[in-house]
Amino acid sequence: MRLHRNALVSAVVLTVLAASALSASADERYIIGSKRGTAHAREVVMARGKSIALELSRHSAVVANLSDAAVAELRKDANLTIEVDARRYMFAGAAEVVPFGISMVQADQLSDAAAAGIKVCIIDSGYNYGHEDLSTASNVTGTNDSGSGPWNQDGSGHGTHVAGTISALANGTGVVGVLPNGTVKLHIVRVFGDDGTWAYSSSLITAVETCRNNGADVISMSLGGSTKSRFEENAFKSAYAAGVLSIAAAGNDGNTRMSYPASYASVVSVAAIDANKAVADFSQKNSQVEVAAPGVAIKSTVPMGTGSLTTLTVGAGSFESSAMDGSPLGTATGPLVDCGIGDSACPGGGGQVCLIQRGTISFADKVLNCQAGGGAAAVVYNNEAGMLYGTLGETATTIPSAGVSDVDGAELLTLAGASATLAVAADNYASWDGTSMATPHVSGVAALVWSHFPSCTNADIRTALGASAQDLGAAGRDTSYGYGLIQAKAAYDYLTANPCGGGGSCSAAGESCSSDSDCCSGSCRVRRGVGTCQ
To answer: What is the distance between the alpha carbons of residues 306 and 117, in angstroms, rounded to a whole number?
Structure first.
């Protein structure tokens, strides 16, 4: 799983710890559904001395921890449907800037003056209420999932980063989001706690119900997992039938595996591309990918003071740099010294700024070797095209460290011996990678376009987004980009030319079709002469 680079290491550690904790228990968590209703499901579970963790009344189901023996016994009852409660993982002020992704999806070409008529529900790790660049008006509400913590706090920063891409304010500070005037309605459902990166699929089902109960038009989910859940799939199918447009991250494993909820037919699956419109190496590539959006080096809001602002000057020049995740704050000045690959103590005699090439050993070990040679700061340059965004993981270092691009690294090599200053200061913004970062671009654009066409259905908006996307990769829909890069103005133009209610609407999952063009998902499956949208 890829979040941002520091969160990647933390996520792996937390997931291993969580798995270890679960393995210590003899019981696993299951969703138990009954054809005879929720009361019957509750009765059969409690009759075996088990407590109910959660009720999914709309789905005639309960959630409980059960032993293997209990599961085997309950499976004999033809009235019951039992499945493992699958985990869902979290996909990790200067003058105001417009992040490249906002322009790339054409959000700056449409007014969001009518955005007050749309509500976006963000299911994530919370919202840093009080952030200088996020609304605290009455149009922002939220719900706490049991055990996750207050919705208006965010220990990991993930949900706050997502929220900023959707709605960071045009207030002269920080960044702007897709909908920057502060009137779009947000409802925050917190399912991730500060000390973990996964939640159960039953928690996600409950969160979807909460979004629906609070009037959501769009549900944004920068999360997922590889295990499919029938109960979860039905929850999203029901939400889609009720008029909700659900949008989720395609996944960050860089393979062709399906990720859920993104890969359900009733959910829009979002791939990540970089500033050059090339699919990110970590982005999932499969038949359910529907659209693509910027998801590499996306600058957005993080909880106040948890981001970093980095400046690097060498001689008379300034160079773009990015602090290593985990770097201490501070400023250091000294002669720039070429330390090669950084696999041993860096020369220089002490007080030097170490210039190190990426490769062979970890970033943390490179910085430690700089320290071992008396270095005051470390600058690591990329050995492949583009900016280097590195992480120190769990390693503690004492000097500021940052990454630079391959091009700047080559220039810095020619400046060895010149005076260099690296400063890493606290900030309220950060640049992260992931399909998690691509998803809010699409969620925001869907809400923006919908605000101009309030009579359209969720299926109409979904059709417009796919039909107007900028085709990338192989001609037509493909597994890397789906229909292509989401385009707000192009979708607006499409709906202007093809008004809702004019016969241009597509069929939802489960409805009849004769070809892929009939389906909102773009997939018509024909069996024995009968076509059904998938």
So the answer is: 33
Q: 0.85 exceeded by the pTM?
A: no
CA distance 44 to 422: 64
- Give the β-pairing of 140-144 and 185-190: parallel
Q: Are residues 249 and 192 in the same domain?
A: yes
C-alpha span between 284 and 484 (Å, rounded): 14
Which runs of E-coded beta strand occur in 399-477?
Answer: 401-404, 419-427, 429-432
What are the tokens at 377?
Answer: 């700061």
Residues 249 and 311 in one domain: no
pLDDT band at 509 (very low <50, low <70, confident <90, very high): low
Q: Looking up tokens 């922002």, which residue turns up?
A: 140
Instruction: Give the containing element (helix H, strand E) for 6.
Output: helix 5-23
Contact 279, 255 (CB under 8 A): no
Let me know the angle formed at the C-alpha of 416 by 413 and 422, rounded to the nearest 5 degrees. Answer: 90
CA distance 16 to 28: 16
Buried b (16+ CB within 10 A) or exposed e, 276-292: eeebbebbbbbbbbbbb
Query: What pLDDT, on the 0 to 100 scale, is given for residue 230?
Result: 97
> What is residue 453's three-state secondary structure?
coil
Name which of 4-8, 17-21, 85-89 the model is least confident about: 17-21
User: What radius of gyration do the chain's Cα atoms show?
Assistant: 24
Note whether 228 and 346 are same-domain residues.
no
User: What is the mean pLDDT of the segment spanning 358-385?
Assistant: 95
d(CA 246, CA 267): 5
**Amino acid in the structure at residue 503:** G
Name the domain count of the chain: 4
Indicate the length of the chain as a whole number: 534
What's the CA gap between 38 and 156, in Å, rounded? 35
Helix (H, G, I), strand (E, B) or coil at 486: coil
Domain that holds residue 316: 307-427
| Rounded Cα–Cα distance for residues 109 and 488 (Å) | 8
**How many Å apart are CA 474 and CA 289, to the nearest integer?**
13
Distances 222 to 150, 252, 472 between C-alpha atoms, Å: 19, 11, 22
CB 340 within 8 A of CB 359: no
* Distance separating alpha carbons of residues 307 and 427, to the nearest angstrom: 5
